[in-house]
Amino acid sequence: MLVRNILSSKPNPGSVITVGPDAKVAEAAQILSEKRIGTIVISKDGVTPLGILSERDIVRDLGKRGSICLEDKVDALMTKTLVTCSLDMPVVKVLGEMTRGRFRHMPVMEGDQMVGLISLGDVVKARLDDLLLEKEALEEMIMGKW
Question: Quick one: residue 46, left, alpha or beta (phi over 0 = left, psi -120 to 50 = alpha)?
Answer without folding.
Answer: left
